[in-house]
Design brief:
mainly alpha, TPR-like_helical_dom_sf, SusD_RagB_dom, two-stranded antiparallel sheet, 609 residues
């Protein structure tokens, strides 16, 4: 993929007038000459690029110090290793979710907010820049301040709102630095206001789209506001189902959908190709750009490719996000109905037959065709023979029996030339918000206010793109005349499939307070595809690639399923208090005005207010 221009510009080498020390190495961007930061649009853009680079989420939605967002925290892909997973096992302590930040550090959340606030303050105080250019710069900074606070609020509830650069800690100005927590509702109101300010001044489309690929647009700001208010209306933040919160979410998400649609946003026709179009990608709303550079100062490679391929097909990493049997079973059949409810017969042995087309484009399984490393007809074989996996000679094989192949540059999908040696240089971009999410956010909030026809429309359109059969009723497998509760469940199920391995499932279960009921008590089902001991041709290993897969399974394989046999550790025990994590004790020790969340040691702060 081509290089991106706005996110990782080599600031020091490009402009001698701005030293590294004056722009990047200081926590306070305002320490640079205001005339340079605010009066010179070139340097102001460079400073803004630094804010982009600090705040854009990584692949899979990683944005926080704790790394929360990984699919390994749900039934998508059980973390079956031997090390403890505190989030799943009910062992989180007050100091384990450290995203709040306590040190004077430009890379923690409040350090990043300080940089943004300094940038905003300098621009506002300097009259030299053209007003239109200034407002566009400010709008992008407001977006990222909203993004940072949203990420904090979804972890902890209300946090201290710092909207101007604060003085350093000192005896004379302690009151200016030690701030109490704002209520959650105050934080949501401020985040909404920042996003409104961003949307007011951002363009619907940037001039020179290729050169500005990845810059925030008006639709991007509106979509994030829709996501924010959907969270605020969900049971995590709205356990009493207050209708006004659903109405606010509906208004914001419909507005985002309408604005994006008017500007040409739509679903890409092929689900498998969502990730392989850059400028002109009609589904991309909020994007982090990567490139294929090997060693220069603009290097920003994506780790997704090397992380998710089989270990033997990459020089680094491999074998991450291994799909679980639970995830395999979650996909509907190709008529959109669940196994056992469909006109298509389902069996565990032929689990791959007649499934939702997104299954084949997301999950790699034993015997599937998976064109990678320039082998166009490559087939993955990961069954067991005589008690040993045949994959890669019995070493570095998938413990679940499956791989995630979403967004991997295979030759049939992307025309890729990636082979084993250069997977670490992948430039595939991450789409934190894509138009399918805007549609499903709109559907969910419409259900919240009882507009079920609108919810049906959005849900059907997502399923239509997926390739699910329309059926005689044109409902694409959906139940007719669903209740509000049934529609909520249908949308959550759709999100699980549509956004599989995109870092959304954990947060969806958390905002719906479904983590305990969905996950607790499970250790994951172990799946083992075994080659029969009799009746197998002697040349099977050399002739299997030419056989029809259904015949191979029926004639030569058996499947063994062991409930609760995947993880070697204790069963999942997600605790109710985790719906709002603890403020780290170290932060409270540093700022006595902070109160701990209810449910934690000495907790007196109600995150629902």
């Amino acid at each position: 993929m081509k290089k991106k221009y706005i996110l990782w510009t080599a600031l020091c080498s490009m402009f001698a007038l701005a030293s590294c020390e004056s722009v990047l190495d200081k926590t306070d961007l305002g320490a640079a000459d205001p005339d340079l930061v605010s009066g010179d649009s070139v340097l102001a853009n460079l400073s803004l690029n630094y804010i982009y680079n600090q705040n854009l989420p990584d692949w899979g939605g990683y944005t926080a110090v704790s790394g929360l967002g990984s699919s390994t925290y749900t039934e998508e892909s059980y973390n079956q290793g031997s090390s403890q997973n505190k989030y799943l096992e009910g062992a989180i302590a007050e100091n384990d979710v450290t995203d709040f930040g306590t040190a004077l550090n430009a890379t923690n959340n409040y350090g990043k907010i300080r940089t943004i606030n300094s940038f905003i303050s300098d621009l506002q105080q300097n009259p030299k820049m053209d007003a239109g250019a200034k407002n566009r710069l400010l709008a992008q900074a407001y977006f990222f301040r909203a993004w940072r606070y949203f990420e904090l609020v979804k972890l902890y509830g209300g946090v201290p709102l710092v909207l101007t650069p604060q003085n350093a800690v000192g005896i004379e100005n302690r009151e200016a630095t030690f701030l109490p927590r704002n209520t959650t509702s105050q934080c949501i109101k401020q985040i909404s206001a920042d996003l409104d300010s961003a949307a007011k001044y951002l363009p619907a489309t940037w001039a020179s789209p290729a050169a500005n690929w990845g810059r925030i647009t008006k639709g991007g700001a509106m979509a994030l506001k829709g996501r924010l208010l959907l969270y605020a209306a969900s049971p995590q933040f709205n356990p009493t189902d207050v209708n006004t919160k659903w109405q606010a979410a509906y208004d914001a998400n419909k507005a985002a959908y309408d604005a994006l649609t008017a500007n040409g946003s739509k679903l890409i026709a092929d689900y498998a190709k969502i990730w392989f179009t850059e400028s002109g990608n009609t589904e991309a709303v909020f994007v982090t750009g990567y490139n294929t550079s090997v060693g220069d100062q603009q290097k920003r490679n994506s780790g997704w490719e090397s992380s998710n391929r089989p270990k033997y097909s990459t020089v680094s990493g491999g074998g991450s996000n291994l799909p679980s049997w639970d995830m395999v079973k979650a996909y509907p059949m190709k008529d959109g109905k669940k196994p056992g409810e469909s006109k298509y017969t389902y069996s565990d042995l032929l689990f791959f037959k007649d499934r939702d087309p997104r299954f084949e484009k997301t999950i790699a399984y034993n015997g599937c065709t998976w064109p990678m490393s320039n082998v166009p007809n490559n087939r993955l074989w990961t069954y067991y023979a005589a008690g040993k996996s045949v994959e890669n000679g019995g070493v570095n094989f998938s413990f679940t029996g499956f791989y995630c192949k979403k967004a991997l540059q295979t030759s049939d999908v992307a025309g890729s030339t990636l082979d084993q040696s250069n997977t670490i240089y992948s430039g595939t971009d991450w789409q934190e918000i894509r138009f399918a999410e805007v549609m499903l956010n709109y559907a969910e909030s419409a259900a919240g206010v009882g507009k079920l026809d609108e919810a049906y429309t959005q849900l059907i359109n997502v399923r239509k793109r997926a390739g699910i059969e329309a059926g005689s009723d044109n409902l694409y497998g959906l139940k007719a005349n669903m209740s509000r509760a049934e529609m909520f469940k249908a949308i959550l199920d759709e999100r699980q499939i549509e956004f599989a391995f995109e870092g959304k499932r954990f947060w969806d279960l958390r905002r719906w307070r479904l983590l305990e009921s969905t996950l607790n008590g499970s250790k994951g089902t172990k799946v083992q595809i075994n080659l029969k001991t009799t009746g197998v041709p002697a040349d099977f290993a050399t002739t299997r690639d030419g056989m029809k897969l259904e015949d191979v399974y029926t004639n030569y394989f058996t499947i063994a399923l062991t409930p609760n046999g995947l993880m070697s550790r204790t069963a999942i025990n997600y605790l109710p208090k985790y719906y709002f994590f603890a403020i780290p004790t170290s932060a409270i020790d540093n700022n006595p005005l902070l109160k701990q969340n209810d449910g934690w040691t000495n907790g007196a702060f109600n995150p629902l207010e």
